[in-house]
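Extended Data, panel c. Modelled sequence:
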Amino acid sequence: MDKSQLTIMNRSFRILDKRRASLLKEPATLKLKERVQEIRKYSMDHLDELISLARRNLEENDVEVFMAPDANQARDYIYQIIKGENRVAKSKSNTTGEIFLTEHLEEEGVEVLETDLGDRIVQMHQKSLPSHPVGPAAHLDLEMIAGIVSEALGKEVEAQPRPVLEAVKEDILDKLMGIGVGITGANSVAAQDGALLMVHNEGNISLMSLMDVHIVLVGIDKVVPTLEDAVSVVKLETIYATGKKTPAYMNVVSSPSKTADIEQVLLKDMYGAKRVVVVFLDNGRSEAVKSEKESLWCIGCGSCIVNCPVYGVTGPEFGYRRHLGGRGVVVSRYLENDEICSDSGLFKCTLCGNCTRECPLEIPTPVMVEKIRGECVKEGILQEEHSKIRDNVKKRGSPYKD
């Protein structure tokens, strides 16, 4: 991300901070924050039990469930479902970005159409990485976006918000014709209800859920006990992520499409999906629960990076794939290994604590970063610059060479 894009991103973050400032102080928000903290802590403390319950209840609801231990198995399983399709549609999902699902499918000859406006703009650009979990194109200004869209569509698009939106929307809707597979994530999974909760403002997830096959890729860390808990989590996420009390849409999916309007005979496949397939992704999360379970409390609002001094200077280089900022660095250790964790920015963090103060779950990211740093140093994993300083101190009693 270049300097101009960082400037635009930080300006966008300041606008977001201003928009949500008063809402974060409201008594109802503070009460909701306490409730969600309890929900997420309980969920991580009882994760195995909740996953088993969620799987059982989803399958009872005629949802197909696959437990993917790692990224490779998740990608392969999803590809086997859509094999033979020329194009699939996808909504915004940090989990699909984590496993490089789009790249894998396109290598296999399947075009992936992003339907979220921000993600579609980033996809058209091909030179950008998403800069915020909710606002992927926050690092691009209107002039840049208009240029990106004009070049991608092969026509001049006026640098005004409405013409840009209309041009991208028209292109997406045109490409959606004939697509039979929609891929989404899920914000929360309600174990006792066997239900998936997805929030969005653009309406695109509703379109994905109406396709013949609806595939949901979701991390095992998103499981909570009840649907009421799930709603509480996504309400708090929306407040912190957008400065709004509720999203435009909350989709609850608990089964394929069905009706019993003819003499109470249950018939499947009305307007919505014929098949709903949930892929639960572990990919190191079970190990994270054992060592740094606090890193999985995250609800994906992005508040940590909005106020992170390192992210404000480096952008998505500080973090791992779609897991941005210091918490992303922490989870990269379990999604990959210590070397990747170091390369993701382990030694860039200033330990200032802004992320914890701004996080609705008060995730102790600096504490985890410092702990992992110590363990990595013991293993001999250091940035080259730090190695030089260490050696200078040992040899000369000073960090300086001369």
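DSSP finds 19 helices and 14 strands in the chain. This feature is highlighted in the accompanying rendering.
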